[in-house]
Design a protein that fits this description.
By secondary structure, the protein is α+β, with helices and mostly antiparallel strands. The protein folds into two domains: 199 residues, no CATH class; 191 residues, Up-down Bundle (Four Helix Bundle (Hemerythrin (Met), subunit A)), CATH 1.20.120. The chain is built from 17 helices and six strands. The strands form two sheets. Strands 2-3-1-6 form a four-stranded antiparallel beta sheet. Strands 4-5 form a two-stranded antiparallel ribbon. Strand 2 and strand 3 form a beta hairpin. It holds the Pfam family Wzz. GO terms for molecular function: protein tyrosine kinase activity. Keywords: Cell membrane, Membrane, Transmembrane, Transmembrane helix. It comes from Stieleria marina. This is Chain length determinant protein.
């Protein structure tokens, strides 16, 4: 028959079963209560020592190792949050725990305090322990010491608490122990050991020796670069490259100006020669040098004599002929022409002496001078071209030399800057080493370790109250489970059990009345436990 075919136990039935076993439950409860009280009495007192550290904005938060050169910009907010978390991790680190354990001593940390710890220690010592042997390069004594150190560190890690204050740059350190003096000494040892551990963690080991060697190397490099630059300048005869370039540029400017001036003068001479040629061609080769006046023309006298004769003849014909007569017309025409010729021949007849044109001769002389000047300018132009080409070639050589000098000068400057930077880093490394020797850190003690002689635990009242409740519940359920009526087979739900009646022989005087009463009580008990049995069946 499955469990679903049985009626589940109700709380009333469980309480009734426990109550029926009350004489078993009361002694059991008293025994367990006495045991609980004994455990509470034997529990050791717990004492707490507290301290507080303040993480300041110090050199460890924003400084870098002298061998690094990343950035001059530091996020202070992120740096401080990371710094606080780093300090807390360092406090909880195994190395820090080991330092405190070695300072306090493993014997004192592992020393049992109170009856329970002493009993546990005594029982542990009773168990057989295997002999400690040398292994891993350690002697047996060193292995035993490491085992004890591990136990002490495990106990310290269990009881030591370090946490960061809310929205603060402080770290609270607490240690709980059975001895107030041990708790105080452990927290105080933590505060004394942490500055040295913090300084060692942020130290730059080997930086000082490295920069000493690097300084000598960079000094040799800078000296060699300066010597090579000096030798090249002495070889080329250059004192200052910039002044040499400036002088050469000035020379090139003068040559270019002279070349331009020569070209301009040559063009001017060519224009002058062309103009002179044109003027010479326009002038006559000879001109009148001397003219004598006051001498009248002889031909005019002869013309006038013939004019007189024509006038006389015209008067003579006018007396004999009419004005329109052909002879009259002919003589008048001759007379008019004679008068014109006579008028033109009236005046003086000067005497002229022709000579070579002096202006043309002067222009020809200027033309010849211009030719000579042109030849001189052409020669000067060629010389200037040669000098300009030489100066430009010299400028090219100077530029090549300047590139070499620039490279050597750059190497010298880089070597010098490297030397100066290395010297600066060496000074920084020395300063850091000096600070490390004083074990300075950016973590200060805001609150020293407290010595609290007032216990902070255990809370015996609340623990006892909970213990009594648990003991009562366990006792009650143990009594209920002990009751035979609850642990017997439960009645099925679907099939009702018939009421048991007496089926024996009819009672007689000889019947045992005690047996009949016992059977009646059993039937009554079953009826009270299963009320459905009292109902008549259909």
């Amino acid at each position: 028959m499955s469990s679903s075919d049985h009626t589940p136990l109700t709380l009333t039935e469980i309480i009734a079963g426990g109550w029926r076993q009350k004489w078993f439950a009361i002694p059991l409860f008293l025994v367990l209560a006495v045991a609980c009280i004994a455990v509470l009495w034997l529990m050791p007192n717990r004492y707490t020592s507290e301290a507080q550290l303040l993480v300041r904005l110090g050199p460890n938060a924003v400084s870098m190792d002298p061998t690094t050169e990343l950035s001059r910009t530091v996020s202070l907010q992120e740096s401080r949050l990371h710094q606080v978390n780093s300090v807390m991790e360092l406090i909880n680190s195994r190395e820090m725990i080991q330092r405190v354990a070695k300072r306090i001593g493993t014997d004192r940390i592992l020393q049992p305090i109170g009856f329970l710890e002493k009993t546990q220690h005594w029982l542990t010592n009773l168990a057989p322990n295997r002999s400690i042997q040398a292994e891993g390069g350690y002697s047996a004594a060193e292995v035993a010491e490491l085992i004890e150190l591990g136990k002490a560190c495990k106990k310290l890690e269990r009881d030591l608490v370090a946490d960061v204050g809310k929205k603060a740059y402080t770290i609270d350190v607490r240690y709980v122990s059975n001895s107030p003096y041990l708790a105080h000494d452990i927290v105080e040892a933590m505060l004394e050991e942490y500055p040295r551990y913090h300084a060692n963690a942020h130290g730059s080991t080997g930086s000082l020796d490295f920069f000493k060697q690097e300084l000598k190397s960079t000094l040799d490099s800078a000296t060699d670069a300066q010597g090579e630059l000096r030798d090249l300048k002495l070889k080329m005869g250059i004192v200052d490259l910039d002044s040499e370039k400036l002088a050469l540029q000035e020379k090139l400017s003068q040559l270019e100006r002279a070349t331009n001036d020569t070209d301009s003068k040559l063009a001017e001479v060519d224009a002058e020669m062309s103009s002179l040629k044109t003027e010479i061609a326009s002038l006559p080769e000879r001109i009148v040098a001397e003219e004598t006046t006051g001498i009248f023309k002889r031909s005019g006298d002869l013309v006038r004599q013939g004019l007189y004769e024509l006038e006389l003849k015209e008067k003579e014909l006018s007396t004999n002929f009419n004005p329109d007569h052909p002879k009259m017309l002919s003589i008048r025409e001759q007379l008019q022409q004679a008068r014109l010729i006579a008028n033109s021949e009236i005046g003086q007849s000067p005497q002229v002496r022709n000579v070579a044109n002096p202006l043309r001769q002067q222009l020809d002389l200027l033309h010849r001078q211009a030719i000579a000047k042109r030849a001189g300018l052409q020669a000067k132009q060629k010389q200037l071209a040669l000098q300009l080409a030489s100066a430009r070639a010299e400028l090219v050589d100077l530029n090549v030399l300047g590139a070499d000098l620039t490279r050597l000068n750059w190497d010298a400057e880089v070597a010098e800057n490297t030397y100066l930077d290395t010297a600066k880093r060496l000074a920084n490394a020395r300063q850091i080493a000096d600070l490390e020797s004083f074990e300075l850190s950016d973590v200060t003690i805001a609150q020293p370790a407290t010595l609290q002689l007032t216990k902070t635990g255990p809370l015996r009242f609340y623990i006892g109250l909970v213990g009594f409740c648990i003991v009562g519940c366990l006792t009650f359920f143990a009594a209920a489970l002990r009751d035979k009526n609850l642990v017997s087979s439960p009645t099925p739900i679907k099939k009702r059990r018939p009421i048991e009646v007496w089926t024996g022989p009819a009672p007689t005087a000889q019947t045992d009345h005690a047996s009949i009463a016992s059977a009646g009580r059993q039937i009554a008990d079953q009826t009270s436990l299963h009320p459905e049995l009292a109902k008549p069946s259909s």
